[in-house]
């Protein structure tokens, strides 16, 4: 090597900005939650679907690249063009490709590509990572998990009602109790009918919709001011109004305040709010049908309810819209109580597949925010069991490694997660430190003396840690955290100790 040639610097061992690594217990906890949700979807006849992580930008449709910003919104790149290969499918044809930004756009492509092979309606669920090339922030990552369920090919609101029922069942399946959540339902057609009754022009519609979305923050009077002449915010700055007359604003306010004591009252108020709009009346009829179907499926109004305040993706959805809100309180970063909020949302989107086929293809679906729901379960103390690590079989004699491997195999055959310590066994303390770092509930110990007597030692690691922390050495010696058992009862007694640890953890959690 030439003396003047600089040595290459070592790469930094760090994740890219906006990304993160997920380790053992968190991965296991997420998988367990998704498995329970998948069980609900499967019971309703939905099939799993896995699509490619990479789609053509043309198929994604939402963020087409331009000359100045080819990566706007998505992680995109252009394939190198190869002579003789035409565009339309990647593979060196000069196409723009991108990581999927959600699970719905790939579904639309699949529904169009395999429309002659798939049953219609096609009911599928999908779970996996998606990528957004957006500015990261606290709790906002560029790669995250989504969990979707959709029905493609049915225009019946029975499909929407089923999605809402499944969403309620899924929340309960992962441990969210009734009374701690509510699926709230609205319909875009009702809102369109309100705009029609208010004689809102096309130029004003977007501003009106944006103002409606502020109802929870500024209240009735604030929305009225924003719809008409404007208002001053808390800082004293003047915010221009949309410019509607008081008569025009009246149907919008009637819509926003139409939530009644029950679904029947809400529906009656909505009929009054849409006036003579045929589209609005159609939307109210669809909500009434959904309410009746949900009741027939045993989903009462304490689980799913008609709520006009739900305003979602108004440029995207074409009919019923819904979201799941967790109603229990948590403490924010400043120690203030607040409701946990939304963990899922969706609705009817009848225009997405049409981009590929040129024909109307009705579709409806829901997406659960996986990280949000996991955070909610942890906030309610419903996270994974503390004793999630494997049982560790320690090594007292290098020459007896086959015996230790046999013990681990016996434990696994009995359904117990187990491993043999494969580091340097010279220092036994390091073996126990390893077991603690692995979150092991039990350590198996057998030296030459124990082997000669046909016994093994089972060490309760959580108990040992607790005793060492709270007791003197003499007290600890009188209450050892390990027991001696006959080797032929290894699996039986290990299982019993793990159950004891699990019960102890449950009791401690309740006490806390």
Automatic annotation (TrEMBL):
The keyword Lipid metabolism does not apply. CDD domains: HisRS-like_core, HisRS_anticodon. It catalyses: tRNA(His) + L-histidine + ATP = L-histidyl-tRNA(His) + AMP + diphosphate + H(+). It is found in: Cytoplasm. It is an enzyme of class 6 (ligase). Residues 40-377 form the Aminoacyl-transfer RNA synthetases class-II family profile domain. Its main location: cytoplasm. Residues 1-24 are annotated as: Disordered. Keywords: Aminoacyl-tRNA synthetase, ATP-binding, Cytoplasm, Ligase, Nucleotide-binding, Protein biosynthesis. Coiled coil: none annotated. It comes from the Bacteria. Its EC number is 6.1.1.21. Residues 1-20 have a biased composition (Basic and acidic residues). The keyword Protein biosynthesis applies. PANTHER family: HISTIDINE--TRNA LIGASE, HISTIDYL-TRNA SYNTHETASE. Homodimer. Belongs to the class-II aminoacyl-tRNA synthetase family. HAMAP family: His_tRNA_synth (MF_00127). This is Histidine--tRNA ligase. It comes from Paracoccus nototheniae. The lineage of its organism: Bacteria, Pseudomonadati, Pseudomonadota, Alphaproteobacteria, Rhodobacterales.
